[in-house]
Design a protein that fits this description.
mainly alpha, 4 helices
Length: about 100
């Protein structure tokens, strides 16, 4: 089984960012102290510098924009559906006669 993704709250992320931005700790030393990967610390610092506290919010699973959620496929027009089904029936009838 693969690793499950851990999530961290904003306070934990802010603590990691603050430890790094004080200037006396590297990404690796912050990661070692908090028990996380140094790439994660680097990512959080980048998000914080670009967007502030909003950059540290969890973004997974949140839809963006006015049309939130997965886009729906275009439903078939009832007439198109009837034509498609009739064509399928004709094809099946031809196959059964063989």
């Amino acid at each position: 089984m693969g690793k499950s993704k851990r999530t961290f709250d904003k306070a934990f992320k802010k603590k990691a960012v603050d430890l790094y931005l004080k200037g006396d700790m590297s990404y690796q030393s912050v990661a070692n102290e908090l028990g996380i990967d140094k790439k994660q610390v680097r990512r959080w610092v980048g998000f914080y510098e670009a967007e502030g506290m909003q950059g540290l919010e969890e973004k997974r699973g949140k839809a963006k924009g006015p049309a939130k959620g997965r886009p729906r496929t275009n439903p078939e027009d009832p007439e198109q559906k009837i034509r498609r089904l009739e064509a399928e029936n004709e094809m099946l009838k031809k196959l059964l006669k063989m």
